[in-house]
Amino acid sequence: MKKHAATLTAGIAISIATLYLAFRNVPFRELVAYMRTIRYLWVIPSAAVVALSFLLRALRWQIILTAANRPVSFWRAFHPLMIGFMLNCVAPGRVGEVARPIVLQKKEAVPFTTGLATVAAERLFDVILLIVFFSTVMTLVDIDPNISLSFGGYELNRAALEMVFSGMVKLSFVLIAGIIAVSVSFTRRYIIRVMEKLPGFFFFTGISFQDKIRQRIIIPLIRIVENIAGGFSLIRYPQSIFLCLGLSLLIWVLSALSYYLMMLGSPGIGLSFSEISTVMIIVCFFIALPSAPGFWGLWEAGGVFALSLFGVSSTDAAGFTLANHAVQMFPVILVGWISALIASVDIRRISEKA
User: Fold this and answer.
1) What is the pLDDT of residues 13-29, one digit of tens each?
2) pTM score of the predicted model
3) Number of structural domains, the chain?
4) In terms of residue numbers, what domain contains 143?
5) For the chain, does the N or the C end have fewer beta carbons within 10 angstroms?
6) CA separation (Å) from 304 to 53, 269, 349?
7) pLDDT in tens, 61-107
8) Using CA atoms, how far apart are residues 343 and 339, in angstroms rounded to an integer?
């Protein structure tokens, strides 16, 4: 417990430090004055839309799990998902992505590697749509390469966005190639045959040693490949793929809508829905960089950069981004803790395993 408390305290301290880095050039009094002018009644519909988007995320994951022949009820998919996102908000290293399959294994007896594969498949839909959205943004919005904002060890500018974009494209290709390799029976059988022959490379050690390698290493690895292939079974169901794509598009539209609703209560912003959607996409690309738990600091710096493209002052941008970040994060943390209580999940143990 002491170790867990120390980790959480360190995470909070890092988040506060990164917020200082993000706002060190913003006059504190002006920032506080702006925060007082926000009409916080708009938090209610904005948070409600965030909640709806997570309900759709749970439905999407449920579809992927069903395709993997691991059907679970909606709420049994929802609770692990919210626990995972909650841990992403409060713990370093995005451990929530690993915590999800751990909870699924504990509660539904789904093999960890199968659950992890379904999480990867679910997140792949988000990455693909972000790539499409960013490609559209780059053609419609003129991002001056000379505009830059320093944050910690990062220079937030067009070059940084293009670097993250390139990384996402490469990651998508690797994931898609891996999914095809283990999901298509011909390639999977070839991979397994190669693995089965590996003990033969130790011909000089004797039959007994080769058998140990086969029993302790090769057979478990083959089981992992089979489990991963099961997690990626969605590839065999085109209708489910299109349904997940439709849900993914709706999830991102709702995310943009939550930004827009919060903006309506924030003086000095005044962007159109497409413009605030562009801000959201740019923020999403910046927080793909390594950052503090909950993306505190980097999210705000990215928001200030994105809003500056539309002529929003740094004080207004900082105030809106900070308030909006809280609206996006705190409901997830609250619901995640409630899900942990309902599912009887020990957050400390799950986070340590992850």
Assistant:
1) 555 555 554 455 554 66
2) 0.85
3) 1
4) 2-353
5) N
6) 24, 11, 37
7) 999 999 988 899 999 999 999 999 988 888 777 888 889 999 999 98
8) 6
